[in-house]
Amino acid sequence: MRLRWLEARDFRNHEHTELEIPDGLVVAVGGNGEGKTNLLEAAFYLLSMGSPRVGSDQPLVRRGAAGGSAFLRGEVDGLEGRSLIEVEIRSAGANRVQVNRSPVRRRRDVRRLVRAVFFSPGDLDVVQGQPDVRRSFLDEAVAVLWPPKETAANAYEKALRQRNRLLKDWEGAGAPPGLEAWDGELVRTGAQLTRDRAAAAAALGPRAGAEFEALTGYGLEVRYAPSVPHESEVEAEFRARLAERRADELVRRTTLVGPHRDELDLAVRDLTARAFASHGEAWAAALSLRLGLAAAVGGEVGEAPVLLLDDPFPGLDPVRQARLSGRLTGRGQTVMSVADRAHVPPEADRVWEVRAGNVTDRGWTAVSDGESGA
Asked: Does residue 47 lie within any of the structural domains?
């Protein structure tokens, strides 16, 4: 898969940027705050209909933009041939999305055409943060691997909210009326989400472990630890566990069983990564999870996704930086940002210099020693 060209207008600090994007490895070089990450974010948004950095679209629209909107356009070579994708991102109200001049409303309508995977330093939270961050990572993996399944997490969250509200508001004795109905909905949506997360972990886990070993020389274990075991009949086990915890739930007035209590266990040298991994190991694990996801997507659809890597080097020591640099080619189209021009791999097919939201195509030559990139 490939993004052939990108146009961004009034997107963050990019007033108007137009770029042709070759296949292979492309590197954007720029100092902090110059707009290199914003450029990768624009590409990812176009390909996935969402930002990997913020939950609201309002920060994406450049201050002073005419009409209060940002615009992204690009052409992709994807799973269904060549397609033109156009997005109007509104600071207020619903966005407008068109594929080949026809309006679309759902993210999966774009994701069925093209897939993208984005790494940023913020992914360190997947390794070192709370379990909900790892659950979100698994749900994102499900959506990228199998776009029609992206609604599973939302369906479960809706059932969970309604059931929790019923438990919280009930003041009488015993179970509240209607609880069994919400049990059924929780089991139905939760069992599907459990299966999807298990499949995603199975697809990306071994690949992430292989990426980690290539960087560090030793392994990373990735294991899905669901609240309800998925090896047997999930629905029956789910119902049994709800029955076991019924008394506790009535006392605590909240749901104590289900995918909202899942965990993705990550271990380095048989020790929990969250508690015992060094900063460099945690960074390598976070990066490896994204690279493993990209490899899993390639295995699922037969083509590598567009890979976007935001400043992947700083958390790695020089040896691991060199190993990563040597492994960035042969992955399909990869667009990477770096703050230090010394991190531009010699194998780069194109180098861009980014300053104050303006992008200069340096072709196949690295930024010269006299120009700032740090």
From this structure: no
Tens of pLDDT, residue by residue over 276-288, are: 999 999 999 999 9
Is 222 in contact with 207 (CB distance < 8 Å)?
no
pLDDT tens per residue, range 91-147? 888 999 999 999 998 888 998 899 999 999 999 999 999 999 999 999 999 999 999
- Residue 178 lies inside a defined structural domain of this protein: yes
pLDDT of residue 372: 37
Helix (H) or strand (E) segment spanning residue 354: strand 350-355
Angle of helix 131-145 relative to helix 152-169, nearest 10 degrees, comes to: 140
Query: pTM here?
Result: 0.92
Conformation bin of residue 212: beta by default, left when phi > 0, alpha when psi is -120 to 50: alpha
State the DSSP code for 348.
-
Q: Is 14 a member of any domain?
A: no
Output the domain CATH number for residue 244.
1.20.1050.90
Distance CA 313, CA 29 (A): 13
Q: How far apart are CA 212 and CA 178, in angstroms?
A: 48
Amino acid residing at 155:
A
Q: What is the mean pLDDT of the chain?
A: 93
Helix (H, G, I), strand (E, B) or coil at 4: strand
Whether residue 67 has pLDDT greater than 90: no
Q: Which of 345, 305, 315 is nearest to 329 (CA)?
A: 345
Query: Angle CA(282)–CA(157)–CA(296) in degrees, nearest 5?
Result: 45
Tokens in use for 243? 């029955």
Domain containing residue 220: 122-299
For residue 133, being part of any structural domain is answered with: yes
pLDDT at 369: 43
Count: domains in the chain: 1
Structure tokens given for 322? 């060199």
